[in-house]
Amino acid sequence: MSEVRASAGERAHAPVPRRAGRPRSEEADCAILDAALDALVEDGYGGMSIERIAANAGVGKATIYRRWRGKAEIVVDALSRRACFDVPLVDTGDLRADLLTTLRAVHANMVGVEGPLMAAFAAEKFRYPELREEFERVFVAERRAHLRALVAAAVERGELPADTDVELLADAGPALLWHALTVRSDPGDASLPDRIVNQLLR
Amino acid sequence: MSEVRASAGERAHAPVPRRAGRPRSEEADCAILDAALDALVEDGYGGMSIERIAANAGVGKATIYRRWRGKAEIVVDALSRRACFDVPLVDTGDLRADLLTTLRAVHANMVGVEGPLMAAFAAEKFRYPELREEFERVFVAERRAHLRALVAAAVERGELPADTDVELLADAGPALLWHALTVRSDPGDASLPDRIVNQLLR
Amino acid sequence: MSEVRASAGERAHAPVPRRAGRPRSEEADCAILDAALDALVEDGYGGMSIERIAANAGVGKATIYRRWRGKAEIVVDALSRRACFDVPLVDTGDLRADLLTTLRAVHANMVGVEGPLMAAFAAEKFRYPELREEFERVFVAERRAHLRALVAAAVERGELPADTDVELLADAGPALLWHALTVRSDPGDASLPDRIVNQLLR
Amino acid sequence: MSEVRASAGERAHAPVPRRAGRPRSEEADCAILDAALDALVEDGYGGMSIERIAANAGVGKATIYRRWRGKAEIVVDALSRRACFDVPLVDTGDLRADLLTTLRAVHANMVGVEGPLMAAFAAEKFRYPELREEFERVFVAERRAHLRALVAAAVERGELPADTDVELLADAGPALLWHALTVRSDPGDASLPDRIVNQLLR
DNA sequence: AGATAATCGAGACGGTACGTCCCGTCTTCCA
DNA sequence: TGGAAGACGGGACGTACCGTCTCGATTATCT
Question: Is the pTM value of this prediction over 0.85?
Answer without folding.
Answer: no
